[in-house]
Amino acid sequence: MSGLRGRLVIRRHDFDLDVDLDVEPGSTLALLGPNGAGKSTAVDALTGIVGLDDGRIRLGGRVLDDPAAGVFVPSHQRRMGVVFQRHHLIPHLRVRDNVAFGPQAAGRRRRAARAAADDWIHRFELSELADRRPSELSGGQAQRVAIARALASDPEMLVLDEPMSALDVASRAGVRRDLAAILGDFPGPRLLISHDPTDVFLLADRIAVVEDGRITQTGTPAELRRRPATSYVAALAGRNLLRGSCVAGRIDLDDDDVTITSANTSVSGRALVVIPPQAIALHSDRPHGSPRNAWRTRVAGIEPLGDVVRVTLQAPDGLQADVTPGAIATLSLTPGADVWVSIKATEVEVWPA
């Protein structure tokens, strides 16, 4: 079985999408990005809901869309199993018939389609729900039926379009476990579309980050966590991302009158600086002791996040520190308050830009 190769170019009066996608058989690529980045447009192009304005889509040995060559394969002939955000079950059909609809739409006869449906209903432990209608299902049950329907059509590729975003927290955990098992067994290429980093980091082999219609970074989950290339990726990975000019471990940050030092002295020139929020300490007075970066700034914002409190600082603009609620009380921190920042040089990661 071959993978997916595609360059997707869609032009609209207010938005352009231009992305390259490469998904190997037996591998899960996640397309991750904020709302409005172009993820849904990419799904529409892949599944044949809209045609390309330029580029080419090839799945296995078939070209599915190539406007220059006049090739366009309609949706029902693309052999893609698609799971949508809100499952899109047919409301008047029972579970068994909803699952059978997938293989029937792919061209199987009714008896063969129902046999395939029964097989997947059994695998998903949905037998007790087989005669229910979608209105009688919970959100998690309905999404499991939608996944079974996609697989029952014997697709060459799986496309999972925000499959858990409409579920509550309890249902999401169960569906995520089902998907992890399914993706591990499915031999073809898999594409997961999401804006949720938890789903992506747990389920994907590789990630392609899309922002404003363009791919801004690709890599494994570990690579993106370790070395984010944009502020959006850094925020997803729970890290601060700064930019500046570096010489022998000394970094002059852009747009801020702040210079920090890294223990890594191998980088020279333009640099990306990555700092975990938990590595940043806050003080009422200038800190003393072991050599470290230290400067005075002001608190821009305070946001409780469960067991920690995230403090946003004014300099460098947007730098975030995670501290305990006790530290907030001890330091009497409020928006606008003066505070000293300190970071050990060993906690400052620096990479060539």
Q: How are the SSEs placed, and which strands pair?
A:
Blueprint: E1 4-11, E2 16-23, E3 28-32, H1 39-47, E4 54-59, E5 62-66, E6 71-72, E7 80-83, H2 95-105, H3 110-123, H4 139-152, E8 157-161, H5 169-185, E9 190-194, H6 197-203, E10 206-211, E11 214-219, H7 221-226, H8 231-236, E12 240-247, E13 250-253, E14 259-261, E15 269-275, E16 281-283, E17 293-305, E18 308-313, E19 320-323, H9 325-331, E20 338-343, E21 349-352
Parallel strand pairs: 3-9, 3-10, 7-8, 8-9
Antiparallel strand pairs: 1-2, 1-4, 4-5, 5-6, 10-11, 12-13, 12-15, 13-14, 15-21, 16-20, 17-18, 17-20, 18-19
Helix pairs in contact: 2-3, 2-4, 3-4, 4-5
Task: Describe the overall structure.
- The protein has helices at residues 39-47, 95-105, 110-123, 139-152, 169-185, 197-203, 221-226, 231-236, 325-331, and strands at 4-11, 16-23, 28-32, 54-59, 62-66, 71-72, 80-83, 157-161, 190-194, 206-211, 214-219, 240-247, 250-253, 259-261, 269-275, 281-283, 293-305, 308-313, 320-323, 338-343, 349-352.
- The protein has 2 domains: 4-231, P-loop containing nucleotide triphosphate hydrolases (Rossmann fold); 245-352, RNA polymerase II/Efflux pump adaptor protein, barrel-sandwich hybrid domain (OB fold (Dihydrolipoamide Acetyltransferase, E2P)), CATH 2.40.50.100.
- The chain is of the alpha+beta class and 353 residues long.
- It is elongated and about 80 Å long.
- A 6-stranded mixed β-sheet has the order 7-8-9-3-10-11, sandwiched between helices. A 5-stranded antiparallel β-sheet has the order 2-1-4-5-6, covered by helices on one side.
- The longest helix is centred in the middle third of the chain and has 17 residues, at 169-185.
